[in-house]
Structures are given as structure tokens and as C-alpha cells.
Amino acid sequence: MANVKKVKKLNVRKGDTVVVISGKDKGKKAKVLIALPQDDKVIVEGVNISIKHKKPGKNMQQGGIIRQESPIFSSKVMLWCDKCKKGVRLGHRILDDKSKVRYCKSCGEVLDK
User: Fold this and answer.
1) The pTM is what?
2) pLDDT at position 1, please?
3) Which residues is 92 bridged to in the sheet?
4) Which CATH number fits domain 17-85: 2.30.30.30, 2.60.40.10, 3.40.50.720, 2.40.50.100?
5) Which of 16, 34, 17, 108 is nearest to 72 (CA)?
6) Of 15, 47, 74, 89, which one's alpha carbon is 20 to 30 angstroms from that of 9?
7) Which residues neighbour 85 within 8 Å (Cβ) at sequence distance 6 or greater?
8) What is the SS3 assignment for 84?
9) One digit per residue, pLDDT tens: the chain, 113 residues?
10) 93 in helix, strand or coil?
11) Inter-residue contact 20 to 76 (CB < 8 Å)
């Protein structure tokens, strides 16, 4: 039981707009492509680009240099609030119709559509 890894709940989801708060891509605003809660990481569009050298094969007829996004830790991104125009912390609130939504801690704007 010592090797059991607890899956952390992420603050961001696939499709959310986030801003990077640290690292070489600090300040970039982009969309989350994939959330990886088991690794506590997210893949963000146009952020943390890595270069891979691929050989030609059955799947790829032509080899070459491929640029792709690599995962970054979820603690390095903050959810973007359109009303505040900045990265914000979020909270959870239960509405009158018993649905749970995320909201901006700064302005109170509901972030879930």
C-alpha cells in the first residue's frame, strides 16, 4: 500500500482559458488542451513547446523536426477571468438549482458556462 499515489483534484479543466504564472512562458494566455490529474499536470496550447526529431516510419511518411506541447504542472497556471482581465483564484458555490459551479474569488463572477 506504500506505492499508492493519490490523485489530486485540479483547479482547471479541459477547455479552460488559463494564464501561465511562472517559467519561460510566464504571462501567456491560452486554452487547456488536456488535463492530467494523475500526474498533476496540464497541457496548454502553445506553452512549453518541445522539439522532437522523428524518423520516417509506417505512420509518418516523412521524418523531420516536430514541435509539440509538453505538460506543465497545474500549479504554474491560473484560471483567467474575463471580467477581471487577470488570472484569479477560484472557489466553489452551490446554486439554487443544486448545481455546483466555480466562481472568481475577486469579482464573484461564475466561471462555468
Assistant:
1) 0.83
2) 58
3) 102
4) 2.30.30.30
5) 34
6) 47
7) none
8) coil
9) 577 777 788 889 999 999 999 999 999 999 999 999 999 999 999 999 999 998 898 877 888 999 999 999 999 999 999 999 999 999 999 999 999 999 999 999 998 86
10) strand
11) yes
The three grid cell numbers given for residue 68, joined into one nine-digit string = 509539440
Q: What pLDDT score does 81 carry?
A: 94
- Find cell 522532437 and name the residue: 52
- Pairing, β 29-36 against β 86-88: unpaired
Give Cα 81 distance to the centre of its chain: 14
Kindly list the domain boundaries of the chain, sorted by start residue: 17-85
Total residue count of the chain as it appears in this document: 113
- Cα angle, residue 90 at apex, residues 82 and 75 outer, rounded to 5°: 100
For cell 446554486, what's the residue?
95
